[in-house]
Please model this.
Amino acid sequence: MTIALAKALGSDVFRWGIDLFNHGYYWEAHEAWEPLWHAAKRSTQHRLLFKGLILLAAAGVKIREGKRVAAVRHATKAAALFRQVVTVPSRLFETALGMTPAALAEYAEAAVTTRAILPEPKPDQPEPVFDFILAPKLESV
Model:
């Protein structure tokens, strides 16, 4: 189980999702991570992490759209899922995200409790709405 999880977290698809997320392409990040979530049928921890990331990306979309209630709903669910990710050995998630799932939960909640002032959108260039980035450690996951 851990080998499959390490493979998914080190995959180009996972890292592509992180890159999209960090650059404000939240819908696209969601789309990148969804197949990983579907593939994780037997690993509860794996599914929790990917579902949390998908919901966090959805919260980013809703923040940008100015839909506060939906953003809070998605971010709160994401934070709850991240807090459930506790039993994975070898700090796989921390290495893959560049932070612990608990820290990511705090960032998710903070994103919707502080009033976001979004910059004027640039044509064809989304602005990130979160004040953190996901930064996988360079070592092999």
Summary: The first helix runs from residue 2 to 9. The chain has a mean pLDDT of 85. The chain has seven helices and no strands.
